[in-house]
Predict the structure.
Amino acid sequence: MDVWHVTWFSLATAAGATAVALPIGVPLAWLLARARFTGRSLVETIVSLPLVMPPVATGLILLMLFGRRGPLGRALSWVGIDVVFTWKAVVIAMAVMGLPLLVRTARGGFEQVDRRLEQVAATLGAGPARVFLTISLPLAWPTVVAGAVLAFARALGEFGATIMIAGSIPGVTRTLAVAIYSYAETGQDRAAVALLAISTGLAFAALWGANRLAGGSRA
Amino acid sequence: MHVAAIVAAVLLAAGAGPGWQAPAPEPITVSAAVSLTDVLQEVAAAYAQNGGGTVRFNFGASNTLARQVVEGAPVDLFISADEAQMDVVAKAGLLDAASRADLLANRLAVVVSPEHRRAFTSLRDLLDPAFKRIAIGDPAAVPAGVYAKQYLERAGIWEQVQSRLVPSASVRAALAAVDAGSADAAVVYRTDTHAAKRAVVAWVAPIWEGPRIIYPAAIVKGRPAAAQARRFLDFLRTATATRIFEKYDFIPVESRPR
């Protein structure tokens, strides 16, 4: 199998997963940083669960939800969308695993935004959505990007949840992490080491970038 | 600005989609035990050469594969490394029961690190204290581990070696432990020994002595490509496929509908 094909597929699905996580994770991070509502700690805990749960367990939950007998899978197959064993399953697994990193990082950024600026905007008549878009988000921007990069990096390394819901189909759902595993399992050490080098390089670049962004916002 | 980034990423992801979709005609998806990776890919290449069509493989641990089928994953043919996992799918009522058959047999082997190179006269040679760490697949989850435990029990040495056993996440991990020098011996499938880097074969379980290791295959019920799956399953029993299986030391089993 083509090493570059696997690399490109992993980059594309990780980018897709980040794109899915952003519109969910960023408002959620802001709400957790600013809003007081009942069930707040519950939401916070649920979002963070994939960080500490075994990824295979998260994958099993996703498989049960999106399988053709699961509630979401059944609904989606009605409209002709199959998730399990497709690139969509890869994106979902990666998004779920990356979301906690995005939310936790972005939340820190929103908490550092001077609350008085938001209050001023509110007293001048801006609604919560406008305050978020014109004050909080622009000020917390570097941290949000850092969170997105972290989520992207986590998505690139995702293995356990991916192999449960997307399987390991060469050329269809096989990502860098899954390919490394199957090459190692079948004794193809050269291919495994080549992918290992690519994967380490990408993770290094992403983490370095995220640290610089997050550090820049504090300075 | 962030909207543009999201749109770009979504387009990127969407663009990735069709590129990975199957070329016509619709290929069948075969979920198969990871120990069959090399041999089945060679068989599938021969199948395609003989005008059979495209086969997509999903290789994994048999228990994961069974779970995926039970949850409704789109699999046409399932080839398990043991009967227990095939039974899991059968119990869920998802198999075309008439299609289920024993496809291949395998044997256990003991590999040792090069420092301990020797030819066993029986499995009891494992009791030699030189073998401080003996890697086997985790007997709680990995079929190869279940078989290894059965074999050690049958030889009457399970109790004695138990404290020296290192359960591994897969049979290949057990082999890798010996290759890497972190275990002195491992009980693996005979077919795995082809992938050994440093480990050497010390013992191959005789057919009459070792546990019965069977790879059953069955067609998953209610799939649109059942006819193509049937064709591939039939091809696995042709002389062409048999030659490839034997090259990898698998033992093709006579067709015995259950």
User: Anything to note?
Assistant: The interface with chain A takes residues 2, 6, 9-10, 12-17, 20-22, 29, 31, 34, 37-38, 56-60, 64, 67-68, 71-75, 170, 172-173, 175-176, 194-197 of chain B (CB under 8 Å). Residues 23-105+214-252 of chain B form a domain with the D-Maltodextrin-Binding Protein; domain 2 fold (CATH 3.40.190.10). Residues 2-19 of chain B form the longest helix (18 residues).
